[in-house]
Design goal:
Blueprint lengths: L2 E4 L7 H10 L4 E5 H6 L4 H10 L3 E8 L9 H19 L3 E5 L10 H17 L3 E5 L10 H11 L4 E6 H5 L16 E6 L9 H8 L10 H10 L6 E3 L4 H4 L3 H22 L16 E10 L5 H10 L3 E6 L4 E6 L2 E6 L4 H10 L2 E9 L2 H10 L18 E3 L5 E6 L7 H4 L1 E3 L8 E12 L3 H12 L2 E2 L3 E5 L2 E10 L2 E8 L5 H8 L4 E9 L2 H10 L9 H11 L3 H9 L3 E5 L2 E7 L8 E7 L11 H12 L8
Parallel strand pairs: 1-2, 1-8, 2-3, 3-4, 4-5, 5-6, 6-7, 7-8, 9-12, 13-15, 17-21, 22-25
Antiparallel strand pairs: 9-13, 10-11, 10-16, 11-12, 14-15, 17-22, 18-20, 19-20, 20-21, 23-24, 24-25
This protein binds 3,4-dihydroxybenzoic acid and magnesium ion (MG).
3,4-dihydroxybenzoic acid (DHB) binds next to strand 3, strand 4 and helix 8.
């Protein structure tokens, strides 16, 4: 599989783009004419720079408003085309993209357009180049790949072929299965782009909101299955017009692009195994059974505050690491490690962020397969030296430089508590049974990237994005789930929001809250209150509203209010939740009772939670006399 990306997809100067694209492992680039014109390099030099970077120019584009013109525009269009063919020879590429005309004078008529392309094909042949015709979904006469194909078919010229672009097909809701009947060798090039489902003008949507395959809502898998079923074996190329990416970090965006292509082809392989796909073998996503443990990096000075909080929640010290200053705090199926090491990875995390979640360990069917898949999808491995007799646990880097470890029950990795720890039974706690979800706070710009990380590596499913109103600005929240792994990604743009302040205070993205589950939230709240748990106080206004909204009994609402418990429900279940006060640095805990089938995270309550947290954080008002 040859991978490629258009220079418009990422930010930077021409050289910065080239470096980033080469570093991300692509085979080629589409040169967007504007990027070439804006650069200071002669065409031969551009060609040489591309080849020196180990890349090839897969396409030169776009050529606009060619077909269907009356004279004298028609002759002008041919002369323009000839100039570009000469330029392509200098650049060292043989394929140009012609997008369907939006020219006000363009005339319709499939045969007229086919004749234009047949004649252009002769000119292209003289220059040793090929022409690909793409239907822009807002094209004046051609805006559907089926019509573009009919033009190409009737032109019947070996130097004229079809270019497909997933955005134009799927954005217009054209059934991609219609591609299957096109001969693969008549398709000269394939561009891939996804986009979020937003109802808006097609051109504006395409020029500003495209994103990487898997980051949006279009059915890229069906499109790509149809393309591969034709026998097409040319490049798969990303053409992503996106305002955020244009301003993003070139290397990060390029790497996300390469990850998205590998994932897109892998999805095709898993849904239609009979197709011949030239992608190295790697394991399918491993279902995550549960979060086995979460580790905090802290210090001898800071850890006691965290440990006091854990005790107030009913956790008990239940073990120690055999060689490191790491304590296991346990309750039910929830294992929390507190690491006070003054060297190594945990200490670096602590120095960078303050007390912070530095590791998340996932129990899955096959840890090595999970790790192999992650690295095939370009996750950064985190090799760690282990001592004699201790486990060597496969790990990758996740959000904010934290570590994700892979465990399974089928190997010694499943015996981590016996091998790497000395443990004792934990006394009964407050009824917590395990982890419900993790909330990771990040800059809004990072959200698509981390969502792609979880969806590609773990096949995590995305819930619809929700907007959470913080008094100081909007926070976007994207929930994702893969089996027992539930995460919410919270993207903050405004610095004054609780999430924005957290990013500042903890110097970058990390876990802002951990939600633990209970089967009886009222009993758990009582047991924790008896242990002096610092519960987040919810105002009375909330309870009046929630009672009216859901028709709850006064008796239930009274009990909720006494324990500062919030409520939500969906078609299939109830949901109760309460919170701790925010800790130094902005971290907090949540306790939830998830009724069978409830899929959400209590998002409608988030504004009230945030209001309460901000009241709690405000310095006490001086009483007036
Ligand atoms: O937005 C455009 O004009 C444009 C140009 C070239 C393409 O390949 C495309 O998909 C869109
Ligand atoms: Mg295109």
């Amino acid at each position: 599989m040859k991978t490629s990306i258009a220079t418009v997809s990422i930010s930077g100067s021409f050289t910065e783009k080239l470096d980033a694209i080469a570093a991300a492992g692509f085979d080629g680039i589409e040169i967007f004419e504007q990027d070439f014109l804006a650069s200071d390099h002669a065409p031969q030099e551009v060609g040489r720079m591309v080849r020196d970077a180990g890349l090839e120019i897969t396409l030169f584009q776009p050529f606009r408003d060619f077909e269907g013109l009356p004279e004298p525009h028609r002759a002008r269009a041919f002369a323009r085309a000839e100039r570009k063919f000469e330029l392509m020879n200098e650049l060292g590429t043989d394929l140009i993209l012609m997008c369907s005309s939006v020219h006000p004078q363009a005339l319709g008529g499939i045969d007229r357009m086919a004749e234009d392309f047949a004649e252009l094909g002769d000119l292209a042949r003289e220059h040793g180049v090929r022409v690909g015709f793409e239907a822009l979904c807002w094209g004046r006469h051609v805006n559907d790949h089926r019509d573009a194909w009919e033009v190409v078919r009737r032109a019947d010229h070996p130097n004229v072929g079809l270019i497909l672009d997933s955005f134009h097909t799927l954005g217009r809701r054209i059934d991609p299965a219609s591609i299957r009947s096109i001969p693969g060798d008549r398709i000269f090039f394939v561009q891939l782009a996804d986009a979020p489902a937003i109802d808006m003008d097609l051109l504006y949507w395409s020029r500003h909101f495209r994103n990487m395959p898997g980051e949006g809502d279009l059915d890229i898998t069906s499109f790509l299955r149809a393309v591969m079923a034709t026998g097409y074996d040319g490049p798969l190329s990303l053409e992503i017009f996106n305002d955020q990416f244009r301003a993003g970090l070139p290397r990060l965006v390029a790497q996300d692009g390469h990850r998205s292509l590998i994932d897109a082809v892998d999805r095709v392989r898993r849904t239609e195994p009979a197709l011949p796909l030239d992608l190295p073998a790697f394991p399918a996503p491993q279902p995550v059974q549960r979060i086995e443990f979460i580790e905090f990096a802290s210090s001898a000075d800071d850890a006691p505050a965290l440990e006091t909080l854990l005790e107030s929640m009913g956790f008990a010290a239940a073990g120690r690491h055999v060689s490191k200053p790491v304590t296991l705090w346990r309750q039910g199926g929830a294992n929390i490690l507190v690491n006070k090491d003054s060297q190594g990875f945990a200490n670096s995390s602590y120095l960078a962020h303050g007390t912070t979640v530095s590791e998340i360990a996932l129990m899955m069917t096959d840890a090595q397969a999970g790790f192999d898949r992650a690295t095939a999808l370009l996750a950064r491995p985190h090799p760690q030296a282990s001592r004699e007799g201790e486990l060597s646990i496969p790990a990758i880097r996740g959000v904010g430089g934290s570590m994700i470890r892979f465990l399974d029950a089928g190997t010694d990795l499943g015996r981590i508590w016996d091998i790497d720890f000395t443990t004792q039974p934990a006394p009964d706690g407050a009824g917590l049974t395990g982890f419900d979800h993790l909330a990771q706070t990040m800059a809004y710009d990072e959200m698509l990237s981390w969502a792609l990380f979880y969806s590609s590596i773990f096949d995590a499913q995305k819930a619809p994005m929700v907007d959470v109103a913080d008094p100081s600005g909007l926070v976007r929240s994207q929930a994702m789930q893969s089996g027992g792994l539930r995460v919410t990604l919270n993207g903050a743009e405004a610095r004054g929001t609780l999430a924005g302040r957290f990013i500042e205070d903890s110097f970058g993205s990390s876990v802002q809250h951990i939600a633990l589950s209970t089967d009886d939230i009222f009993a758990t709240a009582d047991a924790m209150a008896a242990r002096d748990f610092p519960v987040l106080q919810i105002g009375a206004n909330y309870y009046g509203d929630v009672q009216a909204r859901f028709g709850l009994s006064s008796e239930l609402v009274g009990r909720m209010q006494a324990a500062n418990i919030l409520y939500d429900e969906d078609e299939s279940g109830h949901f109760f939740q309460f919170y701790s006060n925010t800790q130094t640095g902005g971290f907090f805990f949540e306790i939830v009772q998830r009724g069978a089938g409830y899929q959400g995270y209590g998002a409608p309550n988030a504004p009230f939670r945030i209001g309460a947290q901000k009241r709690g954080a405000r310095p006490a008002a001086v009483p007036r006399r």
